Amino acid sequence: MTFSEKLVEVAQRYIGVAEKPPNTNSGPDIDRWLALVGFPKSHQPWCAAFVYAMLDLAAAECRVKNPFEKMPLKARAFSYSEFGERQGWIIKGRGEPGNHEYPAGSLIVFAFSHIGIVMRTLEPGKVRTIEGNTDAAGGNNGGMVMTKDRVVGLRDVILSPGKPQPLAQVREEHYIAFLKRGWSGTPSEAGNPYTAAANEITALVKQHFDLD
């Protein structure tokens, strides 16, 4: 399964999640999503937090990096189009006609400060999406994860991050040797399985946390 396919699959698991109590921008899942983007128990609008949480979950299940992990202001819908433009991920820019087909797993940033995940193209210029914090009227602060059928507007932006980077891998035999020895051990000569595991796990940690 590709990352884009996984993104749609994990987002579908949360269709129907709603604010508890209603009209509070809160609830068990919603609070967790907001915390993930730096706004714990904030009662902030959460459409972008939902999208980021789905990106993060899809990345974890695909064992790849979240392509948006370095993006600032993750709780803001327009951050995704701005970051996507810098990365060269835009497939439908603001001001361009939206009369095309768009791949599942793309992100659509609406001109009215809202964001969703494209499930599929229904017809050129019309997509089915999964969106957080919307409602039957299609608003951007509606309180529920829902599917919506949307006409792609002239000022809407669609982006696709492509194939994310894989996480660093640790050879199984090296990892087993590392676990047997434990962190208290001291790496010795080159070629020792513990030494190799320590080096590989160090590389993994540096890559995951973007350390030099």
Structure write-up:
By secondary structure, this protein is α+β, with helices and mostly antiparallel strands. The chain folds into 2 domains: 3-159; 172-209, no CATH class. 34% of the residues lie in helices and 17% in strands. The chain contains 6 helices and 6 strands. The chain has helices spanning 3-12, 28-36, 47-62, 77-87, 172-181, 193-209, and strands spanning 90-92, 107-110, 114-123, 126-134, 144-151, 157-159. Strands 1-6-2-3-4-5 form a 6-stranded antiparallel beta sheet. Strand 3 (114-123) and strand 4 form a beta hairpin. The model is unreliable at 183-190 (pLDDT under 50).
Main-sheet strand order equals: 1-6-2-3-4-5
SS field, number of helical segments: 6
What is the number of beta strands?
Answer: 6
Whole-number total of structural domains = 2
* Net shape: globular
Largest sheet, in brief, is: 6 strands, antiparallel
- Radius of gyration based on Cα positions: 20 Å
